[in-house]
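1st attempt posting a full record on here, be nice pls
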Amino acid sequence: MQDLISNYKHFLDNGKTERECVSQIIKGAREQGYKDISEYKTLKAGDKVYVQKMNKAIALFEIGTGNIEDGLNILGAHIDSPRLDAKQSPLYEKDFITYLNTHYYGGIKKYQWVTIPLAIHGVVCKTDGTTVNISIGEDASDPVFCISDILPHLAQEQMKKTGTEIIKGEDLDVIFGSIAPSKKEEKDSDDKKKEEKNTSKKAILALLKEKYNIEEKDLESAELEIVPAGASRDCGLDRSLVLGYGQDDRSCAFTSFAAMMDSKAASRTNCCLCVDKEEIGSVGATGMGSHVFENALAEIIARLPEGYSDLTLRRALANSNMLSSDVNAAYDPLNAGLYDKDNASFLGGGLVFNKYTGSRGKSGASDANPEFIAKLRGCMNKANVRYQMAELGKVDQGGGGTIAYLAAKYGMNVIDAGVPVLSMHAPWEITARADLEHAYNGYKAFLTL
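the predicted structure (as tokens):
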């Protein structure tokens, strides 16, 4: 278990963006004998192959001995997490402070992102075809970034606002640098000050040019994600918990990937799928709402001895079993009124099966079949995996969605199965080490179905 948790924290710390997660997955997969789909002209039982999309989504397959039309065993997770994204024209200066203008991504409590140390991860793509990788704020010698807040002495009006109004989305701008005005500038006329404005921004741009050979216009084709700075940590005096950023849903993505690497396909082909954009509706070319998965599977089928046909693809999808490896809300004793305790998931309670997600009247849910659930129960019991059946919270309290309903559209069996998380969608989330272990073992057991 210790190795699993150590490797997990390493994955979290080095995978704070989708691109970084895919890069780690590819590295680990290749060490286990996986090859890119472009390296195969034909495929046979035992071959290990991956298909990646735009460096932000990836599907790994180990070919089984049976007919692919009989379906696959699929572990499907997402690797995006709530954060702040830099806007297309992000840099501006205001009264000698240079800011990075942002747009928040996914469901966040905006006030939680104020006054904490932040890091910047991502890429800047230049017109000459080169890509500059950016990671600032993780090394002990790096600077970090921050969003300022009002001091309590002047916050009388702010403190009257609701939680959603305390800080607005347009105010989540990150301090990127500053330069103090010179004595001369302080004495100059207003016209002279206007001529010499943007002194701080110019200094920042000079640093970007010196360190990364980046011009301001290059930021128009950048993908910069602002995330909490720092490493994941053991939490609690007994070290029973893990505190870290992005555990929704990288706790499930990592354990799914680890289970895939430590399993061997039998009759059915095994698959580990990690997609993007779940936190904003699974949209875009790398989200589950696209054809990214079925296109990847089509490439696999085209290389099998029986060859590609649309009917083979559809039968393979319809006959598959999938665990939508996604987290569930852990029961919070300090906010017990939000939960139906008999149907809540608990830290340390093991892998969580959620028959349906959605909200209120099961809106947006896929609602797994009981026959499939019974089969999974038997599988978990045989493997001695601790599991719990739960839903997100009280019926009319709210809700949430996963990629399950997008997999269910193919007619396959699918249910949400993941790790319970406390403080979900906060900059720092909490999971239990025991749950991570049971998720890993549960995913391994599922791949034997």
